[in-house]
Design goal:
- This protein folds into three domains: about 120 residues, NAD(P)-binding Rossmann-like Domain (Rossmann fold), CATH 3.40.50.720; about 180 residues, inorganic pyrophosphatase (n-terminal core), CATH 3.90.1640.10; about 130 residues, Diaminopimelate Epimerase, Chain A, domain 1, CATH 3.10.310.30.
- Helix content is about 45%, strand content about 20%.
- It contains 18 helices and 18 strands.
- The strands form three sheets. A six-stranded parallel β-sheet has the order 3-2-1-4-5-6, with helices on both faces. It has a six-stranded parallel β-sheet with strand order 9-8-7-10-11-12. A six-stranded mixed β-sheet has the order 13-14-15-16-18-17, with helices on both faces.
- Strand 2, helix 2 and strand 3 form a beta-alpha-beta unit.
- The protein is elongated, with a radius of gyration of 29 Å.
- Bound molecules: manganese (II) ion.
- Manganese (II) ion binds next to loops.
Length: about 475
Amino acid sequence: MQYLAICEDDLLFQFMRKSVTKRSEVLFLVHDPEAAKRIKRHGGSSRWAELEKEETYKKIRLDHIDQSILFIRNPELREEIYSLLRRLKQDLPILSLASEEEASRDRNDPALRQLPIEDIFQEFCGPQLLDTLNRQKVEKIRSLFGDKDKIHILLQHDPDPDGIGGALALRELLGRKRATTPIVTFGGVTRPENLAMIRLLDVQIDRITYEDLHHDGAKLALVDVQPPYFDRPLKHVDLVVDHHPKRTPFSAGFTDLRSQYGATSTIFTEYLRAAGVEPSQRLATALLYGIKSDTLFLERGSHYADLEAFTFLYPFANRAMITRMERPALPRADLEALGRALSRLQLDNGVAVIHMGEIKREDVIPQMAEFCLQIEGVDWAVVSGLCGDRVVISVRNVGYVKSAGDILKRLFDEIGSAGGHRSMAKAVVPIERFKEHFGEVSEKVIREAIVSLIRQREQELRG
Ligand SMILES: [Mn+2]
């Protein structure tokens, strides 16, 4: 295919640069000699000419052109060139880029296609323009750490795919290796899918103590989590990138919180794109899985940005590997706990509350809450269980009144830790403190506390 792009300057070339320099079949015919030079300098093929002269097109030999692109902002000049081309070659395919108003005018010319520039900008340039913001952030992030610094990337107590994906991306953005930039946690990976992920992607997550966190002046980067999440204050935090709502004020050298996003991996995908870093298959797979699992395949709490990041990562990722991560085997004992809990299920105006008692694996609680949402008539699923010396409560919500995070925070933040999004949230409270506050840990107590707040919220919204 031979393309002829007729332009006043090199603007179109700059937009198309990536694709046209790889393929030399696009000849840019430009009005401005300086622009013609710039195009050549950047590896494109160009010719300077007087665009309104018939001579110009005779020299080019339109017979060899399969497709012409007209990007002329001056409407009179555009019209003039269009008529000229038509006169010289009746069936020459012309793609004309014009304003929406002009492009919508019917020309009764089957070989002419008119595209509104606005649409093109929207599609190709919108994300790129926004990226200046991300580019600045990437620069700032890179400036935080010196070459000799050791960096600890700290995740939540039970690192999940979103945190792991973000951590790998941060390491990539900084051009670092595992040895100087380890991913650390005070807890450990427990969920079977997450264990499968770190095994399949060969991700090492080290357990660390508070004492060792700042050992030898190591710098600290928090990914998918904020300083107040931790039981003990962290000494110095250099970076926080997270999508959870801000709970308590904190200070850090660099902070990027985007609570409207469904995943921290989305933020890091934007950084990578802005920095022009093409993700490896391993990194893309981790980020894609992070977005997928945090947003339940883009369904819950997700934002247009999550979809956009997902689309970008998809071709780079190993989807077969993600499928293998997603099918973790449920232990028999936990299946039985699910069964017992279900048999006790009581529905109260769309609110399903289940207390599972003692359970072995904490991740069964959110899985159960997720599952309960599928029961007919359930808008709110509240599932709790006892893990060691803690009460863990997970809330999911599909209805009109969405304030899962707020409600858990109001109830449990004082006596434990609580947070989350409008539609999914979690609270963890030491059993002793729970008892001091509520008298006992039971379905009844949890139901009464949560249902009354949900009703209150509904009333506020109606009122
Ligand atoms: Mn997350």
